[in-house]
Amino acid sequence: MTEDSTHGRCSRCQTNTATHMCEDCGIAVCSECLETKSTDYVVCGECHATLGTPSPEEDFTECPECESTNLCEGKRTVDICPSCHSTRVVLLEERRRSLALGMRHAIMAIQYGHTKLREYNNKLRTAKRHLVSLRMANFLHYKWLEEKIEAIDGEIPAIKTRISSQAEIVAKKMAAETKNLIDYTLWTTPQFPFIEGVTNRVTEIGNYYKQNVDEALEPLRTTLKEVKKQLDGIEYYKNQFSLFYEHGQLAVGELPVCAMPEIRVTGSDFLKNEKATGALFLTNRRIVFIAETGLVRKKMESVFDFPLMYLKSVEEDGRFRKRLVLKMKQGDLRISCSDQTMKILPDYIEIARKFDKYIQTDMQRVRKLEQEETNISDVRLKIEELVYSLLSTSTRGYEDAPNPRSVDSYRKRPWAERGLGEIPYGAGYAGRDEFRDRLEQSFGRERSDWSHISDPTKRRNLESLRRDAESINQAIRETVRLLRDGRLVAEDFIRRYKDLMRDSYYNRREIDRLSRQTRTRYW
Ligand SMILES: [Zn+2]
Ligand SMILES: [Zn+2]
Ligand SMILES: [Zn+2]
């Protein structure tokens, strides 16, 4: 990769190396051949605000920012294209950089697959935990919540396969589009418009993939959204019930059903406090009303507390201002409430009466749901590997047969060195170097010829694996410490500890395998 072959000569003087290009007519010139244009502009002498260039009709007299009249003139010189006199002249290297970034960005669209999968998985995990916490608090509503979650859990493996095999197909298409173009240091200036076209096509391929991922996840997301809505509803009742627990408690076998705030008792045939505003609580056994009573010394108290059996029926009453009439064994009880509550209260009373039919009784099933976590790191690794091999000039070096690369070039990885940003490998404790080492090692496994020649790589792999082992050990110690400090609950501790142990196991196995191989080669 010599300067000349990539950068080319200035199209004006034909001697210097071109450093700039015109975005309008596309020519590449050297800085000496660039022409300049200077414009006058006015700047405030007090606050240094730039007022711009006055048009022929107007004349600046004072600064719009600070009203100073101390205005100065300045001269601004800009480069212009010697051919078309456009001011849109850019540095060649900058243009190359932004084109390279564009292509890179387009390729990285494949990461959408595991990012969205992870997002979904996190939401699912949150929903499961939420469900467990509600169940533990004795809110056992809607046994179909478990069924729904089990169903979407069951679909995940197929969707994971779909997302990762689609990624593979898309990566192949992207590889074909960017064939021989991935090393941006080799792009020539006349190639730039073509590169832009390639990036556009890669972007399209990426968009198609994104659409596909969304379609795959859509049904699961919809179900999860429904589940979440119901969980939030139950959560709401759970929060409302804290008022209930301040004034009473549930009997053995009694379960909370729902709570409706801002209910006003407007009249009754038999109550002492026949006007009060408060919250109505339904359990599977009782109907309880807790409200503020007393005119002078106000206090919250239970205004009535009846077995649900005493409630004979609920009727609507009133022509203009609608009321609900609770027909109790002792007589009528009129309440007013929001339209929403008025609509749902009769339904909830029915649910409360037949609550047995709605509740989840199998706590094992609930626990099991929470424990069954879908692991998506395999998809993530696969996709990161695809992205890496698409972007890496080393793994794709074999493509440019007419221009064989020196062995060294793959170590340089111009992508990274030019500070184009990090490739988000995302691995827990593996830095980018370790990650590359691992990848190179896995590529090496496929191309056995290569892996057996390069001793240093192998040695480095071993080193990086040992470094990993050290970080895993550190993470284990850290986890134990967090548990001792009480900053980690037992469940999370177990989960994290198990993961780390598994990582540690694989790491050790890999070290063993590699050191065995290294040895056999010397024998
Ligand atoms: Zn020149
Ligand atoms: Zn031009
Ligand atoms: Zn000013």
Structure description:
With 523 residues, the protein is an alpha+beta fold. It has four domains: 3-92, no CATH class; 93-236 and 360-408, no CATH class; 256-358, Pleckstrin-homology domain (PH domain)/Phosphotyrosine-binding domain (PTB) (PH-domain like); 425-523. Helix content is 51%, strand content 17%. It is built from 14 helices and 13 strands. The protein has helices spanning 3-7, 92-107, 112-136, 144-177, 192-247, 339-353, 363-371, 377-391, 409-412, 414-417, 432-446, 448-453, 455-484, 490-522; strands spanning 20-22, 28-29, 35-44, 50-52, 71-80, 89-91, 256-268, 276-283, 286-293, 299-307, 311-317, 323-328, 332-336. Strands 10-9-8-7-13-12-11 form a seven-stranded antiparallel β-sheet. β8 (276-283) and β9 (286-293) form a beta hairpin. The longest helix has 56 residues, at 192-247. The protein is extended, with a radius of gyration of 35 Å. The two termini are 40 Å apart. 24% of the residues are buried. Residues 1-6, 400-431 and 442-454 have low confidence and may be disordered. One zinc ion (ZN) is lined by residues 22, 24-25, 27, 81, 83-84, 86.
List the helices and strands and how they pair.
Layout: H1 3-7, E1 20-22, E2 28-29, E3 35-44, E4 50-52, E5 71-80, E6 89-91, H2 92-107, H3 112-136, H4 144-177, H5 192-247, E7 256-268, E8 276-283, E9 286-293, E10 299-307, E11 311-317, E12 323-328, E13 332-336, H6 339-353, H7 363-371, H8 377-391, H9 409-412, H10 414-417, H11 432-446, H12 448-453, H13 455-484, H14 490-522
Antiparallel strand pairs: 1-2, 1-6, 3-4, 3-5, 7-8, 7-13, 8-9, 9-10, 11-12, 12-13
The structure holds zinc ion (ZN) (3 copies).
The site of one zinc ion (ZN) has 8 residues, from loops.
